[in-house]
């Protein structure tokens, strides 16, 4: 049993703690949160220790590994401390909003063989993964074009938007990683378009966008189109489509239930989509823990690592530059 | 070019006349209808001769073959006359509502080599036919169970219901033929259940049913479930499902168009189903003409012949007997 | 927290034990199994007490309620003992294969106000339940016709088939309960058809069937068609369709993942269906525990009770009689 | 009856001629083709006059209107002649490959009130049109983002590619018009990406692309993503998706038939897509003739006119410029 402690038990951290507790080859070693009452509630419900500080976690002999689900600005520091303490890490994305900080972190942890895994949970979705497997197995031939549709069911609160680092860093970041996962090849060119249609005032205030399209291209010419909206009223829209020389694979959306309704006005009506990521990716979050446990047990590099987090951030910066200059940006220009 | 005359140009006959006129290997030789103005309108629109009587059609040297789309009680007489005149016939179903009359007709035309085709148009639907082909090709292994769902979008007028011969002869008759087409084996047992739910008063008055289930069984044990309703508000529901030892094939419904709608309340909503048979089976009606032209050109027995019409009627009688006696009926007990 | 002990920790009992342990308002009070090692394994993994006997469970002050997941022949006895001990019960179906035994059990527990819930898990499936809600809310008007398609992915072992009590009691029993759940009205007539197509030899040896169709009818004329096969190679086929005067609702199947594949030969191909009931009804099994906890907490009769188990068995007996006599059977003739 | 002559009876012209002949309010006034035998064949089959020259058609008092389906380089000349002769015109797209020539043509026909309709047939597809109607009716709120997926089933012959004017003018041109149809607002910015993946050699030789993505933006910020491939092995992929503030509408693909296949390896497999445009848009081509007849009868401007053809060409030129300069292009920079 791998004893994993969870740092940060907000909505996501709490869910991770429960998944660890339920995992057949892992156990929950304890929790910590700067907001004591949150940590207390989770520790009591799951019957585990509440640590008084992150340092105490890193120092504990009862902790084999840590999961970092604290607020974004603390990720890089905690990650560095965990590595210094010799604890394998599963860190929620992003590593940091600043590429400079990420690069500094990379320098500090360079050469470590301690497993570091990034929480790009969508890689563990059975549908998205089946698309990738279809490519890997040759079922759709050579890959030509990818379309990632990723739309939130509704705007995050203004307080979050204001500090999120912008749509490319708070939302598209997942799709940048998905693009890399599906393309299986480095992206060389980035071309982005942004609009303010859902909440023009807030977006203008934050110099941000709520409706964006990003076109990525690899050296061999493979294309990936990412389209995002901060609000799709029909639910959390999460689709991945891959066109190849021999066919196409699409990971479709998931409605709340399997019922279809027919009436005088319509047929085949389904329920709204699962809403939101904790529901939609519930199975993927559990599979992510398994992948982390596997990596630590084998001492192998996790399937999605630190460099994947850094590369996604580079694509986000390239997209921002592309919009501001109205041109295609080469990823070599960044980072 | 096969010169085909159409007898009876009501809604169905008119559609047949247009299909014949548009057919690459057939031409419309003329039309006749006891209601002169109907025949006149069609003859003028399509630029063909209006015959003064059915006899004139049969006597004409300009007519190679006839399509009978007159009222049901005239079918058997006209069919006999056509055969006597040596004209191949495509006759709308049913041959007659009375099995006795059909048997008499069979006796009179016994031994003829003149092609006689019955208008069981659903056999020519690309979806239903693909199900049959999936069985024939072995794609689903040995056939075990068939489900035919067949529901009208709304009640026919009371005036029609009162003389239709009952639901098994006016509506299920198509499904009995489809069952035979899909089963590919004689039906030996019939068990039927009827309810009066759509229009209880009219149904009671006519000693008829508006909601029925019929279970058919062949000698080898293959089962076919037919379910009918005289009113499905979402449109003309026409599905055929076949379960085999190696898989399943389903012919699905067709909505009016390919648009899917998503909103805050629902996802993936399609349009109502095509409504009614002339729209739903438009392609099949055209393919039926082709099959008739093929059969006449080759002098071969048509794919669906007189005996198919008689067998469907036997199943209808068996279903009626099953309901009245509350038991499974062997088809040997009929006809 | 409701402390629930689990009797019988085979495949289903173990799954129930895990669901109880993970439930926010329940805790696992311990387990018992006549096969000691099985109980030991589960007790160790979940960190709970292993009881030495069912009697010890019933006598324990640490047990608030019991879940019976032992072999079928022990259900009725254990249920009676639980009630005698004042423990609320969630009992896996069926209560017993013999209607006589069930009736005796009913007599012994008559008048008890202790909650007894039957494990007809499909009632808790979100799709099937949405169909029922669509009926209850009036979304499809008055109910006319129900079609329940329920096919196992493959034959159970011969050793199971030989003692299962026949397809109506081992498999259709779930569909009989689903029919009652969806119809919302007592069934008065039962008409069944059986074939031996999947494994004719074994079926003949057991005087059983592997492919059956049962048509149920209520006093008001509502119809329900159940079709079963002991082997659908494409997976566990579980569909419920309800036609009403105002529309239709269908609970569709669930494939293993959301990927669709396109190639030169086909389009829109989905994965095989979830296989088998523990996967397909995973959410429903968890919801079932919640419903039981709710009922016990409120002291209210569970949504699905002892009498539901008895009624399903009556329909199974009626179906057997219908096949053997080739006629429609009135449920008054049974029990 | 509107008497329409068809100029050019290759594959498309012949289909138009048949649709006109079958139209209830139009008749085929005759045909002309520079390749005499083609014209002769069609004229004989449909029983209409074969004209000896385009001039003879324009001079004829028996011709009310003309449909131009000749080779692209002749479109503008014939269109000008038709207008000079006072004949309403339905002209296949494009007007010309050269924007200069189109502008010259526009100058020559300026001020005419004679109906001129462009053959952007996809506007008449029931699914695509339903998407537009969903927007117009407010069913999906304010429009935010459009995705047009448009992929040919296979490469056109090299001989065609070499003179086609490039993918934006031979293929995307339809999608540019569809974008304008759906957006309902002028496009101001164009950003394009092109790859050579299907047939890199031929594409390089022609300085063309076989895999392209174009992102369009309107003044108000609405986005439209067009993705094209010259080869989708699963058939002719034609989808239109519109995201709005209140929902989403998608026009889905059409398989060859309605059959779904299930096996041990997969479920819900559909047939390949309709292949190619004459099959896929058969209904739309017929509806296009109706729209033309309507416009001429009412003397009203057709729904899709000369300027629509010119605007689509401007977008094609903008896309080419965008690729060559690796930047977003403002439509004001063109034409």
TrEMBL record, chains A, B, C, D:
It comes from the Bacteria. This is Inositol 2-dehydrogenase. InterPro entries: Gfo/Idh/MocA-like_OxRdtase_N, GFO_IDH_MocA-like_dom, Myo_inos_IolG, NAD(P)-bd_dom_sf. The gene is iolG. Keywords: Oxidoreductase. It comes from Rhizobium daejeonense. GO terms for molecular function: inositol 2-dehydrogenase (NAD+) activity; nucleotide binding. Residues 2-113 form the Gfo/Idh/MocA-like oxidoreductase N-terminal domain. It holds the Pfam family GFO_IDH_MocA_C3. It is an enzyme of class 1 (oxidoreductase).
